[in-house]
Amino acid sequence: MITLAKAKNMVIAGDYINNPVIITTGIPQIIINFKGKCVKLDYHNVSAYELITDEHRKSAASGVARGIVGGTLLGPVGMLAGGLSAKSKGIYQVAIEFKNGKKSLLEINDDIYKALVKSCFAPAHANHSHSKKPSKKSSKLRKIFLFFSWTLVALLLLLLFFAFSSSPSEKDSVSDEYIAEIDSYNAAVNDTWDNVVNTYKSYDSGEITLDDLMSSMGHSNQTFIMTASEIDKAEETTYSRMVGEITDLYYDTTINIMNFLHEGDTSSLEDLEHVPGQIIEKKSDIDQARDKLIK
């Protein structure tokens, strides 16, 4: 049975290296962290992009081509970095130049590539600015609107104050179904972390290659991201917040491992030294928070 190669769906060279690439609301984006920080791959942020072909690789390897989009995009080293020899159907390697000057090389699947092409197509009106000076009438209306807006904000704050001052305890406000839901997220991220650890052991023992390890960790990080997104949608309790925090820790640790192995970034080792103790502490916090909900 032939197993088809899968796209890593991540940045494989340049800025944001090792960060996952996903689609949210139809727009591809590079996930930076669980705090909601991301870089959208659309015409607002991307100045140019180019699909890397065999012709590009040969030119870069021979030193003839100096770049892809205007000047040097990633240079010959970046173009030939990890996994660029992949020719499997449905795997695309795309060089991105951002409007802020940063440059990245992505390995993405067919769905993300199609979304990228669509998102980077700027509508005709996007390049036109409107500098018409507002009239006195519109300025007066704006002041009235601001007055009512601040009044509404003040009323909402008062309502929130009274709501929280008389809110029930967490135990009274959540159901057994809610606890089971957060339990499933907790189990999912812990299983994914176990997979990260076991995959690294396989690499350390020589059973798999570095490319296999990086690909597996990239898929694990996508699982962390998707699970964290589901946790954010659930009602927030101490239990859900603690599960979100350990998911964040697992994600950051996996990124640090990838940076150390792929980039030789020794600064990542300082963060990794404290991880075992942090995991034990957070698992204890999770157990305590869950116990308070079920008692």
UniProtKB/TrEMBL annotation:
Domain of life: Bacteria
Transmembrane segments: 144-164
Entry keywords, A to Z: Membrane, Transmembrane, Transmembrane helix
Name recorded for this polypeptide: Uncharacterized protein
Organism in which the protein naturally occurs: Blautia parvula
